[in-house]
Amino acid sequence: MGVPSYLLRQPRYHVVALSLVLIALIGVIEYSFRCPINLAPIYMVPVAISAISQGFRGGLMASLVTVMTWFIIDAVHDNGLQSVGQVSYLNAAIGLISFLFVTHLLHHVKIAFNQQWNEARTDRLTGLLNRHVFLEEASRKIGQARLAGRPLTAVAVSINDFARHAEKMGTGACDEILQQLGVALDRILRKDDLIGRVGEHVFMVILPEIGEENAPLVLERLERHVHGALRRTERKMTYAIGAGVYVELPKNIEELQDSTLEVMNRATGKQSRLIKTIFQPEAEQNRSLGTLSESPVSADNADF
Predict the structure, then answer these.
(1) 0.85 surpassed by pTM
(2) How far apart are CA 237 and CA 233, in angstroms?
(3) Selection from 229, 272, 237, 270 nearest residue 166 by Cα
(4) Boundary of a domain, candidates 60, 86, 121
(5) Which residue range forms the structural domain that includes residue 235?
(6) How confident is the model at residue 238 (pLDDT cuts 50, 70, 90)?
(7) How many domains does the chain contain in total?
(8) pLDDT tens digit string along 17-37?
(9) Which of these three, 100, 121, 142, is where a domain ends?
(10) 22 near 49, Cβ under 8 Å?
């Protein structure tokens, strides 16, 4: 599964160019050495690369280019297209059918691979990243922010008394609420932001480049969407939002997760959000994270 995964991560035009170069290279070898053996299995390699990366259309394109290459080689060897025999046409037709059959199979393999890939990475209920993948991707975000010397904000969102609501409303109704909340959060995020479901009723968001100055505005917008998703429910639900603004990045993702969830837990029990600016002085790298400032904001006074 390593090769398909690698090909799917590459830019489209890079894979197309690689396939065409391979076809041309195989064609040059076949023409130069007048190979008596059938090189169709070797031509299958660039066809397979295109089919895996670009789907059926990519495989079809590579198949047609391969057949055209065969005709050109046969025409040159036979001194023109008029001299090409019926056997060459028959071989080309059989080769094209074979290529298209393999392309069809690989297209479905790609679909199955994508399904398995998505199932392994996403939470089945909300479609967001699951906890394991979220923490992996968040760790990369921390590394990127550290290299760039830029701040990062982590946000945790939870529904208060979720177990009691599930008991009263039923699991199905609460699952639907979690789905709506996941959609509301995901809808407002930027391309480089990260969101995942890290607990039964807990979501986490990573916001690169968001520091002390713009964190309150971003959190206010996020809170409005959370409030909008929950106010349509049958029962009155409250939420807790905790945000850690990391001026200097923690050593690992576990430290970031724990400190952000701690802020969220302090806001639990009432409908509110709590923003905490966190730093890690160089002289105290082995100590726990400290607090520069806290700014609790009640949702009761927010303008929805």
Answers:
(1) no
(2) 8
(3) 237
(4) 121
(5) 131-301
(6) confident
(7) 2
(8) 888 898 889 888 887 876 666
(9) 121
(10) yes
CB 160 within 8 A of CB 268: yes
DSSP the chain: -HHHHHHHHS-HHHHHHHHHHHHHHHHHHHHHHT-SS--HHHHHHHHHHHHHHHHHHHHHHHHHHHHHHHHHHHHHHTTSGGG--HHHHHHHHHHHHHHHHHHHHHHHHHHHHHHHHHHHHB-TTT-SB-HHHHHHHHHHHHHHHHHHT--EEEEEEEETTHHHHHHHH-HHHHHHHHHHHHHHHHHT--TT-EEEE-SSSEEEEEEET--TTTHHHHHHHHHHHHHHHHTTSSS---EEEEEEEESS--SSHHHHHHHHHHHHHHHTTSSEEEEEEEE--GGGTTSPPEEEEEEEEEGGGS--
The rounded distance, in Å, linking the Cα atoms of 105 and 60 is: 12
Poorest-pLDDT segment among 49-53, 73-77, 266-270 = 266-270
**Cα 34 to Cα 17: distance, rounded to the nearest angstrom:** 25
In a domain, 62, yes or no: yes
Find the CATH number of the domain harbouring 210: 3.30.70.270
Residue in this structure with the two tokens 């991560």, named with its chain if needed: 9
Q: Is the pLDDT of residue 53 over 60?
A: yes
159 alpha-carbon distance from chain centroid: 26
Q: Please tell me whether residues 44 and 95 are part of one structural domain.
A: yes
